[in-house]
């Protein structure tokens, strides 16, 4: 297969498989963000249990006691959606005369939601690498051919003839793009993933809040196994997206630098 055929093959493979690769990335990103949300709720669960107990005790003493309990608990627990739900239940029930302990406790039941399936992450990463490697297989030949062309430009006797076909600077830019693409695909390393259990410890809550709120978090700033797991998974997902973007850059470079000249020759 000559250079032009490899260029055409690469472009065809990219266009055929790009949607599949993007779908893998999107699904992985959604799964890890759902897991992060579930971790946040689990880490806040201890506070939710305390709130439910205080609410039940306060209802036994009357509505006034409930609001006293809320005030005391508010000083100890912050940042939970349960406050709004509790206030709504109390105010509504006071207005209708139907305030009951059972009604409030039902409002504070944790949602019974299945966890996203993260055990398939290594298989998803492996599938991405296999497909990306297939797309990039023609790039290896293209890369070698471009390197040969650049060597020609270094030969004084052949330089003038070569300049008639390709621009040396364009070839150098393309060579860097292609080499970076191949390197990024090679650096994708699927590994066994142990998904941490959902816990209620303060370290996990601090970590998940950082990961949800801050745009940039370093791994050494995280305290929990769960936080580090989410961070590493996000980093891998970002690498997959960067790799797919790099494939697109290489495709654009091939279409701009090589194909027009090859088609005209």
How would you sum up this structure, described in words?
This protein is mainly alpha-helical. It folds into 2 domains: 3-41 and 117-264, no CATH class; 45-107, no CATH class. 78% of the residues lie in helices and 0% in strands. Helix 1 (3-43) packs antiparallel against helix 10 and helix 6 packs antiparallel against helix 8. The longest helix is centred in the N-terminal third of the chain and has 41 residues, at 3-43. The relative contact order is 0.15.
Chart the SSEs and their pairings:
Elements: H1 3-43, H2 45-61, H3 63-76, H4 82-96, H5 101-107, H6 121-153, H7 156-163, H8 168-186, H9 202-213, H10 225-264
Proportion in β-strands? under 5%
Mean pLDDT: 77
Tell me the Rg in angstroms.
29 Å
Largest sheet: none
Structural class: mainly alpha
Helix content: over 70%
Number of strands: 0
Element-by-element helix/strand order: HHHHHHHHHH
Which term fits the overall shape?
A: elongated
Can you give keywords for this protein?
mainly alpha; single chain
Question: Nutshell version of this structure?
Answer:
By secondary structure, the protein is mainly alpha-helical. The protein has helices at 3-43, 45-61, 63-76, 82-96, 101-107, 121-153, 156-163, 168-186, 202-213, 225-264.
């Amino acid at each position: 297969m000559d250079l032009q055929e490899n260029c055409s093959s690469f472009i065809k493979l990219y266009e055929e498989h790009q949607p599949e690769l993007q779908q893998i990335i999107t699904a992985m990103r959604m799964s890890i963000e759902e897991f992060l949300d579930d971790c946040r709720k689990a880490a806040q669960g201890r506070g939710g249990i305390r709130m439910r107990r205080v609410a039940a005790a306060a209802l036994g003493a009357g509505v006034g006691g409930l609001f006293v309990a809320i005030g005391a608990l508010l000083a100890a627990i912050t940042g939970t959606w349960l406050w709004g739900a509790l206030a709504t239940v109390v105010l509504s029930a006071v207005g209708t005369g139907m305030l009951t302990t059972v009604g409030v406790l039902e409002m504070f039941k944790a949602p019974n939601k299945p966890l996203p399936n993260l055990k398939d992450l290594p298989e998803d990463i492996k599938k991405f690498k296999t497909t990306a490697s297939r797309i990039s297989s023609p790039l290896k030949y293209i890369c070698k051919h471009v390197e040969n062309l650049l060597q020609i430009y270094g030969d004084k006797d052949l330089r003038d003839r070569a300049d008639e076909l390709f621009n040396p600077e364009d070839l150098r830019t393309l060579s860097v793009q292609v080499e970076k693409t191949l390197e990024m695909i090679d650096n994708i390393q699927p590994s066994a993933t142990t998904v941490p259990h959902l816990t209620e410890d303060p370290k996990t809550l601090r970590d998940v809040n950082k990961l949800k709120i801050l745009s940039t978090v370093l791994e050494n700033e995280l305290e929990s196994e769960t936080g580090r797991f989410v961070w590493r998974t996000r980093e891998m997902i970002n690498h997959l997206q960067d790799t797919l973007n790099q494939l697109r850059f290489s495709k654009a470079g091939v279409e701009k630098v090589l194909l027009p000249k090859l088609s005209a020759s």
